[in-house]
Amino acid sequence: MVQAQNVHGDVHIHGPAGSSSTRAVPRQLPATVRHFINRTVEQDALTTLLKGAGNDHTVLVSTIDGLAGVGKSTLVVQWAHQVREQFPDGELYVNLRGFDPAAEPMSPAEALAGFLTALGVAPEAVPATEEARAAQFRTLVHGRRLLLVLDNARDADQVLPLLPGSPGCLVIVTSRQRLDGLVAHHGAQRLALTTLTRDEGRQLLARYLGSERLAEAPEDVEALLEHCAGLPLALTLVAVQAAAEPDLPLEDLAAELRDERERLDALDVGGRTGIRAVFSWSYRTLSSDAARLFRFLGLPNSPDISLRAAAALAGIDQRRVRRVLAELCRAHLLTRRGGDRYIFHDLLRAYARERTHNDDTDQDRTAALQRLLDYYFYATYAANQRLSPARVLPDLDYIDKQLWRDFATNDEALAWWDAEHTSVLAAIRQAVALRMGRGPWLAYVATYPLKLRGLIDELRSSSSDGLAGAKEMGDRAAQARLLVDLSTAHYLRGELDASIHYHQSAADLFTELNEPRWAAKMHGSLGEILLDLGRYADAATSAREALRMQDRSCGPIIDAGEADTVLGIALAHLGDFTTAFTHLHRAVDISHGPMTHGYALTNLGMAYLLKGDLDNAVRIYRREVEHRRAIGHRLGEATSLSKLGEALHAGNATEDAREAWMAALGILDELGHPDAEAVRTQLDSLDASTSGPGSTD
Question: Exposure of 361 by Cβ count < 10 A (0-12 exposed, 13-18 middle, 19+ buried)?
Fold first, then answer.
């Protein structure tokens, strides 16, 4: 795919010696368009190919593919006009109708007949068969310098009979399909035309509307660019409408495009050039499996989808879905990214969603989304089991073995979560909106990996979404657990009043539900909040109550070691180090949850620091950093590094302290956490102390 306004560098192609001036010189290129946005990269690629014409005694072929409406034909025709003088024997052009709303694809025999007559063959002298026409065509173009533009090809089979047999010709093929056969067997150079950048899209609008009109409504222009998602056809349709109505505020156009359900209507001008019509030409060429998956891929709200998730959505095995996804990618109805992930263009997603609501039943759509939700639930559940085996999770009454997956290592589980957490969060929101019972429980199961990776804002939003769903569906058990998670999110953001509010609501609900293990945990976690408020005596009282309730409850303790940790560090602050260390060492020994164990270690280190035992404080903090790094706890690792810096600085290990604080700051800045400012202040203070009067710098 090429859009070229200017040809870079000199290109010289001379006609063959002894060529006849009486031979027909076809000039078949269509007219260029007025409003054209240059694409330098693709232009340079074609020009580079042209420079090599005839050097290796082969026919030079370039395939240009891309999404419907991305501007393949416009680009090639524009570039071809720039270089047509380099082809003294003329240029041939044919629209092969590979994707046409009203006609079948042109047969190679029909295209060859047109070429032969253009080259001077009388219509009655055109051979009858495709093979004979192809042979005569190759004979006529032998030794000539011709440019062939084969536009809108359906597949490689349609193109092969149209290729010259001798060097000197350049063939440019455009298609919505990737023509891998031409690349593999004929050495074609493939160019994939992508959507326009924001700046290019703005240039296109300016060509139609003028820069002054765009400058009057910059926010509305950004909205138009956002909703058209860089597709030249969509931007052109919007620009033409705006140009036809100069008094129409761009705000009105942007509003029409804002709602996905109305976006296709706003870009539908009727006939062959509307967005729906153009997309439909590609859609109708799909196999039944690919068409079904295309429609279902419009259902999830996630920004992309993995191969495993697509298999769940379609209800087919991974091997089969891989083939179907490959078909969609070849048709440029889907784009593959690294790691077996696939992404829709926004307008294609809207079209797919419209098709599934027109062509599939409510039962089909609900079943597809339920399979996808179950996949995310099972996989997140399995990730929890790998990352924190001690975490108390809901019992699974039923497991669909096709949707279940295991993780062999922590790294594998974390890699999956890092790739999928955005899709999981989108699934939670969608499931809650559709009143799907597993939505709130997916929010609860997602809590641990969200905390582990320091995604606190995401934890807050998923807990809020899940809580709203649990309330609406009357699921009080899920509601109580999500109140805890929401309290935790606010606590980790330093919003202690809000944390206490949600914590108290959770505690009351667990009491009503007669869940003593959770009620005991509520006292321990309340102690954590009281510690941050500096209320050490109250924290100790709350922790003792948690321990008392744990002794009386049946079943495993939730977050074993948490209450001992809170009591230990509270007593350390109150000066009772003997009893404090007893509880803190016990907490380290009994805390089986990776995050609870890290919390116990950090407070043991803090107790040593409060006592003035800097060597043991540094030793424990280093151990804690390594532990949290090993389990992938990003925010915890930053906290540990910050505390390690404090201990090192107290011991006058200035450079080691700087190194620890710099590492902590890097993580906190990456997570966008407010604690970054406190660490930055510590570093500034350290720099000031080492560079002031009397320093050795």
Answer: exposed
Please state the pTM of the whole predicted model.
0.83
Are 193 and 345 within 8 A, CB to CB? no
According to DSSP, the residues that pair with 306 across neighbouring strands are: 341
DSSP label at residue 27: B
Sheet with 305-306, strands from edge to edge, namely: 305-306, 341-343, 335-337
- If you write DSSP's letter for every residue of 600-644 in order, what string do you get? HHHHHHHHHHHHT-HHHHHHHHHHHHHHHHHHT-HHHHHHHHHHH
Contact 492, 671 (CB under 8 A): no
Degrees, nearest 5: CA angle 139-174-291: 125
* Model confidence pLDDT, tens digit, residues 240-291: 888 888 888 899 888 888 887 788 888 876 656 678 888 888 898 899 999 9
Give the contacts of 506 (CB within 8 A, at least 6 positions apart): 480, 481, 483, 484, 487, 518, 522
Give the amino acid at 425: L
Give CA–CA dist 268/686, Å, rounded.
63
pLDDT digits (tens, 9 = 90+) for 69-128: 888 888 899 888 988 888 999 999 999 988 876 678 999 999 999 999 999 999 999 999
Bridge pairing between strands 189-193 and 147-153:
unpaired
DSSP conformation letters of 76-118 = HHHHHHHHGGG-TT-EEEEE--SS-SSSPPPPHHHHHHHHHHH
Q: Do 208 and 239 touch, CB atoms closer than 8 A? A: yes
Asked whether the beta carbons of 64 and 174 are under 8 A apart, the reply is yes
CA distances from residue 565 to 387, 590, 602, 612, 666 in whole angstroms, order as listed: 21, 11, 9, 19, 28
Taking the CA atoms of residue 53, residue 57, residue 58 and residue 64 in that order, the dihedral angle to the nearest 10 degrees is -10
Please give the Cα distance from 694 to 697 (Å, whole number). 9
**8 Å CB contact between 442 and 376:** yes
Which token pair is 391?
């975490």
Q: Which tokens go with 599?
A: 């919390």
Q: Which of 180, 217, 226, 233 is nearest to 63 (CA)?
A: 180
165 in Cβ contact with 59 (< 8 Å)? yes
Angle between helices 456-473 and 438-445 (to 10 degrees): 150
Distances (CA, A) of 76 to 1, 4, 126, 144, 678: 7, 8, 29, 21, 57
Of 542, 547, 545, 576, which is closest to residue 564 (Cα–Cα)? 547
